[in-house]
Design goal:
The chain is mainly beta. It contains 2 helices and 6 strands, in the order E-E-E-H-H-E-E-E. A hairpin with an 8-residue loop joins strand 2 (about 10-20) and strand 3 (about 30-35). The longest helix has 5 residues, at about 70-75.
Length: about 120
């Protein structure tokens, strides 16, 4: 992801990244983090209440998060929400025109990202 103000790029790589079938609501499974963005999917880093690892994919019309409301409806985006998120590359944070990867908060206020790329390689 690219920070909003500085334009600096950061990355989060996972040795294992897979998504379950539709019948399991496309649950996300990641492990083996490396990179310089810090692991915003891991419970060890962000706490179990915000970890996206193991979460089902939610959309505004299909709520699968752990909150009483709908995170996807609140942020107008699909993502692997928990309570609601620590990272969301499809959300517009605080109704503003930027996404967030909150483990970068020491680099920029609210860890605002102006660009992101999710690249998946078949093995």
């Amino acid at each position: 992801m690219q920070l909003y103000t500085s334009g600096e790029w950061f990355n989060a790589n996972y040795a294992t990244f897979f998504i379950d079938a539709e019948s399991s609501y496309y649950a996300l499974h990641v492990s083996g983090y490396t990179g310089n963005a810090m692991d915003a999917f891991s419970a060890a880093v962000v706490g179990s209440q915000y970890s996206a690892n193991g979460m089902n994919f939610s959309t505004p019309d299909a709520d699968h998060d752990t909150t009483e409301g709908s995170c996807a409806l609140s942020y107008g985006a699909g993502w692997w929400f928990n309570n609601c998120w620590w990272s969301c590359l499809t959300c517009y944070y605080n109704k503003m025109n930027y996404m967030a990867w909150y483990t970068l908060v020491n680099k920029e206020l609210h860890a605002r990202a102006r660009a992101s790329r999710m690249m998946i390689r078949s093995t």
